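Input record (one chain):
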Amino acid sequence: MTGMKRIAIIGGTGVEDLPKKTTFKRVETPYGASQEIFTERRQDSELFFLARHGLRHETPPHKVNYLANIWALKSLGVERIISTNAVGAINLQLAPGSFVIPDDIIDFTKSRPSTFFNGPHVVHIDVTTPYCPEVRAALLSAAKNFNARGTALYACTEGPRFETPAEIRMMRQAGCDIVGMTNAPEAFLARELEICYGAVCYVSNWAAGLQDRLTASEVIRMGKSIAPKLQEILEEAVTLLPEKRDCPCAISQKESKV
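The corresponding structure, as predicted from the sequence alone:
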């Protein structure tokens, strides 16, 4: 629709019910059905909300149907995705409760389908900037009152188990600041379909070896406690995003096909 910004929010652990929701549906795709997608119409934008783990958090990170979810959003005309993610802090300067806007990612996942392009045409998508610079800029501006860190290397692991202390030490040596379980392949699939993708992460805990033990309940509690702040960031970011895109995401397939 002309003049309308079509933006999706993918909700992570602890924020499954974050935005207001009106109508919803599952979308059938060549890769199966997506999670429920809720739609909210505003004056200059149409917002879509998808809880990647399901509304009851019934889908573990390695079983999320990333292909179906991203394909479904594309079919609905979504041009931008803002992802919310609970992460563990590897960098000691990041404390639980803080916000992070990552700018790079290392994919440590093992078994997830990670591309729409399985032949016969060979496509090599450029991910020199894996997170959309325009979405990142909007998130950074929206989160300035919460002292969000604007550069961070996100390590994505397979899950659903938490990482070992040795794995975290390896990631720290590689320069990783935070660790989560969902930005890969989500960010890469969005880029393949020329959808802008940015993430706002909230630190729910210290990574393994930096606190006595890790529990899923503390992640959920942190998500619920920061939800009002996260809502404020998302609302402002949606407002700040320009109507027209001027970023590499929108033309990612242009020089990628062999």
